[in-house]
Amino acid sequence: MSAMLKNWLFIVSLLTAFPAWSINPDQLLRVDEAFKLSARVADTGDVLLLDWHVAEGYYLYRNKLKFSPLSENLELGEPDMPAGELKHDPNFGDVVVFHNALNVRLPVNRALDSSIRLKVGYQGCADVGVCYPPQTQIIELKLPRPIAPAKDLDPLAGLLQPSGGVGLNLLQDSLFFFFFFFQVMVRLMDDG
Fold first, then answer.
1. 118 confidence band (pLDDT: 50, 70, 90)
2. Is the dihedral of CA 55, 58, 63, 68 positive or negative?
3. Cβ contacts of residue 99 below 8 Å, gap of 6+?
4. What is the DSSP string of 9-63?
5. For strand 58-61 and strand 93-99, is the pairing parallel, antiparallel, or unpaired?
6. Side-by-side strand order, sheet with 101-110
7. Predicted confidence (pLDDT) per residue in 130-181, tens digit
């Protein structure tokens, strides 16, 4: 075998043994293209829905997902997410990863604030062996008004509570008017 052929085979074997060396960086997606994050608030207002669209040939690490409140009166519950896939990763060993999509339900306990700020951390890799550095995104969301508890929705509750104002509340006004009218009618009948 000639020396030139041996050198060529050596170079080819190196490139196939270390696939990351043979990757053209222009072929890799930008991190925000590989892992597209969107966030919204559930209709109930007490759950944040965080959705990642993971490009084909890429994956996110479960153990690299981090959620931190930035708003003062915001408390986060335990994130609810799918089980994921077990993978032996050359960089991190046995890990759970997500391909294609990841949907996280994140319970929130908040004050009456109309918006919240949340810091979301994540990290992912391309299947070809190239990993992106850890990423952080700040999410700002407008929240719906909190839903009143059922006891506050009782239509008669306001009628029976003191009005706190100058006049009487509706029920007291109605009763006052009825008795006033009744007394006037009785006197008119007695006079007549």
1. very high
2. negative
3. 54, 58, 59, 85
4. HHHHHHHHHSGGGG--GGGSPPHHHHEEEEEEE-TTSSEEEEEEEEPTTEEEEGG
5. antiparallel
6. 35-41, 47-54, 101-110, 74-76
7. 999 999 999 999 877 665 555 555 555 555 555 444 444 544 555 555 555 5
Indicate the residue type of 84. Answer: G
Q: Which residues contact 106 (CB under 8 A, 6 or more apart)?
A: 47, 48, 49, 50, 67, 76, 77, 79, 80
Statement: residue 17 has pLDDT above 50: no
Q: Which two tokens stand for residue 83?
A: 């089980």
Q: Which of 43, 66, 51, 57 is nearest to 130 (CA)?
A: 57
3-state secondary structure of 189: helix
Tokens of 46: 């007490």
The DSSP output letter for 107 is E
Q: Give the other-Cβ count within 10 Å of 57's Cβ.
A: 13
